[in-house]
Each structure stands twice: as C-alpha cells, then as structure tokens.
Design goal:
The chain is an alpha/beta fold and about 230 residues long. The protein has a single domain, classed as Rossmann fold. The protein contains 6 helices and 7 strands; from the N terminus they run αβαβααββαβαββ. A 7-stranded mixed beta sheet has the order 3-2-1-4-5-7-6, sandwiched between helices. It is globular and about 45 Å long. It binds S-adenosylmethionine. S-adenosylmethionine binds next to loops.
Length: about 230
C-alpha cells in the first residue's frame, strides 16, 4: 500500500459512540479499533481515561506525510460527497460544509495525538486479516467503515478472515456499517454470519442512533465463545 493511493478520512469520537452504541466507553475495558485511520476515537477516549489500541496500515507513515495527504485529498473527497448528496441524510450532520468541518477537526485531533500515541503503542501498523495480538486480548473490538463498506473491492474470503481475526482478538466485535458504498446491504453479510455461526460465534444486527449514509442503520455484533 502506497500513501498516494490512500485517502485518509476520519470520524469523530461522538460518531464512534453513536455508530457502536457505546455507553461510558472509558469504563468498558480495553478497545481495539480496526482500520481507525485518522479518526479521533483513540485520542479522545485516551484523554478521557479509556484504553484503546488502533490498527491501520496507514500508521507506517509519520505525522507529517499523513497530514500532507489529508490536506491534498480532502477537497477531492468533499467534491465527491457534494456530487452525490442524496446518498446521505443531512440531519445529524447538517450540510457538506458541516461534514468538512467535523472531519477536518477530528483528523486534527488525531494528528495532535498521533506521535505520542504511536510511542505509547496506541497506534499499531497492521492490516486485516492479520492482527498482532493474542486471543481475547481486548474487551471490545470495533471496525468502522472498512468491512462491508468496500464489499465490491474486498471479497468474501477477506471479509470472513477479517471477522474471524477481530472476533478472536476480543470478547465482542462490533462492525458498522453493514452497507456498501452504494448503500446496499453487503452481499457478504449473511454468508459471513452463517460461517461464524457454524464456528460457534453468535451474531446479531442491532439498530443504532447514528445516521449519515442512507441505509446505514444497524451494526453487527459478534460474540466469540468464552475462552
Ligand atoms: C474509510 S476509512 C475509515 C476510518 C475510520 N475507521 C473512520 O470510520 O473514521 C478506512 C480505513 O481502513 C484502513 N484500511 C485499509 N485496508 C485495511 C486493512 N486491511 N486492515 C485494516 N485497515 C485497513 C485505511 O487505511 C483507512 O484508514
């Protein structure tokens, strides 16, 4: 993966809380965020006294090249959003301008925390489906806008391997959204749930309060068997 092929785009702490229906995450034990990229969840939760490790292939680069890449790619991304505004609900995020502000602010929070967090082992370079943690290391594993979003680019085998790896790393896994970039339910979702179920992992679809992409109304919860 080369940096010039990556478009960094990070959500806010409040968006993570709403996407994953988290209650008092600073008291929920240790989180693993998979594919957190430049989101603010790690920085804010850590500042609030919580425990979280984020993994992303983006973290092989330092702060300066990531900041430069954000600055270079944000205008293109915003033009894309503006060109397909009907794919989003403009309520919780009121307008494209509000979106740009919240995303850039979240990524600034990430950038301010990034080098200290890297040194502390809170930002770890890794790529699904390979996670460098022992089984059950985390209480809660989260994955926002990586699986299912890119169902056209990442095949079923990748999705299942990534879900297995994330479920193995924690006591519970939550994934959001369950729809593709086109807003359609991922073709991989039910087959993956059946495969996980046959391996003893129950799962459920839960409504969440977060609203932005049309059709993205539920998260997947996966419960690995107790170890
Ligand atoms: C759309 S961004 C989502 C960022 C963040 N989770 C959020 O919701 O704001 C997708 C992220 O997935 C990361 N990514 C791409 N391939 C990955 C992989 N194999 N394993 C983990 N993360 C990956 C990208 O680097 C990028 O940061």
């Amino acid at each position: 993966m080369e940096l010039e092929h990556i478009v960094p785009w990070g959500r806010s702490y409040d968006e993570y809380v709403a996407m994953f229906s988290l209650e008092s995450p600073e008291r929920c034990g240790a989180f693993l965020g998979c594919g957190d990229g430049p989101a603010a969840f790690n920085a804010v939760l850590t500042a609030q006294g919580g425990h979280v490790v984020s993994v992303d292939p983006l973290y092989r680069w330092g702060r300066a090249p990531i900041a430069e890449r954000i600055r270079d790619t944000a205008p293109t991304l915003m033009r894309q959003v503006e060109a397909c505004q009907d794919q989003f609900e403009w309520n919780q995020i009121a307008s494209p301008d509000a979106l740009r502000q919240t995303r850039l602010h979240s990524m600034d929070i990430f950038l301010a925390d990034y080098e200290a967090g890297r040194r502390a082992g809170r930002y770890v370079t890794a790529a699904l489906p390979h996670l460098p943690f022992p089984p059950g290391h985390f209480d809660q594993v989260l994955c926002s806008h990586v699986l299912f979003t890119y169902s056209a680019q990442l095949d079923f085998t990748f999705h299942l391997a990534a879900l297995r790896a994330m479920a193995r790393a924690g006591r519970e896994l939550r994934v959001f959204p369950l729809v593709t970039l086109k807003g359609e339910l991922s073709p991989h979702l039910e087959a993956a749930r059946r495969a996980l179920g046959s391996e003893g992992m129950d799962s459920e679809l839960c409504p969440v309060s977060y609203r932005f992409q049309r059709g993205a109304t539920h998260m997947l919860r996966v419960f690995p068997p107790p170890r």
